[in-house]
Amino acid sequence: MSVRWRDLAELVRAPAALSVPGDVVAGAAAAGGLGPRTAGLAGASVCLYWAGMAANDWADRELDAVERPTRPIPSGRVAPGTALAVAAGLTTASLAVTAAVGGRRALAVGVPLTAAVWAYDLWAKNTAAGPAVMATCRGLDVLLGAAGSGRLRPALPAALAVAAHTYTVTELSRSEVSGADPRLPAATIAGTAAIAVAAVAPAVRRPAAPGSTAPGSTAPGSTSAGAGRWWRAAVTASLAGWYAARYGAAQAAVARDPAPHQVQAAVGAGIVGLPALQGALTARSAATATGAATLVGLAVAAAAPLGRRLARLVSPT
Q1: Which parts of 152-291 fold into alpha helices (H)?
Q2: Contact 82, 148 (CB under 8 A)
Q3: How many CA atoms lie within 13 A of 312 on its CB side?
Q4: What's the farthest any 2 CA atoms get from each other in the chain?
Q5: What are 227-253's pLDDT values in tens digits?
Q6: 43-92 confidence digits (pLDDT tens)
Q7: Which end of the chain is more exposed for a tag (fewer CB within 10 A), N or C?
Q8: d(CA 197, CA 172)
Q9: Sorting pLDDT into bands at 50, 70 and 90, what band is 119?
């Protein structure tokens, strides 16, 4: 049985992978480790994400035959064995790249991350623990970016922010077929607002004591240092606001009309809008005082509009 590339792209939710590299970038920026290694770890993360999507559809093939018969496996466009082979192959590729690029330190995060992804697909997804396990996957993905430098602690706030966002999206996704209780979007909107505020808060810091200078930066009291600080704060606030506005509007639509199609739209908005949050978390990083993190944050956020365009061709949910 030959499989079309479009069917494989649908199986792994290819456009949704644009929301993945930003995890690693945000973690690396927080740890002060942005560099060539970051790109390799981001590639490993994308492979694992696609593996998880294929494993998800393989595990749900009988349920999807009833609830989502147009998906690749129940529609007959992709055989179950092919989906499982894709998931296993991409998982192996992810771990191999992680080891080659980041060594033991990256594997110390990559292996638990891989276990969490498969645990979600094969067990936790349909249990009360599902949203927490998925949130753990995304949080570990952020820490994977920091693992390259061996400094995980500075990346914990970013990991928690991405994990909290993922929790809201996963909770909403559980109502994609049946429709949502109106209280659910009210709770997730509140969570989204809190996440956006948390992303912005550390961006504006009090000037350092006179005479102290961060490595690679100009003197704290200089005009360029002050301008750089406020530029970083402005970019961070703009990206966090963009994230909250787009995702929040989709959740507000669910609150007004909790029908399945509105829930699906909100879940899609949460997935393709994540790069804006990741961009804010990257831009706010104080670890790179030269402004490189701010520019990288803008580049990460650029994946959001691209993801929305591609989502019209291949659904991210």
Answers
A1: 156-173, 183-200, 223-256, 260-283
A2: no
A3: 4
A4: 70
A5: 667 888 899 999 999 999 999 999 999
A6: 999 999 999 999 999 999 999 999 899 999 999 999 999 999 999 999 99
A7: N
A8: 21
A9: very high
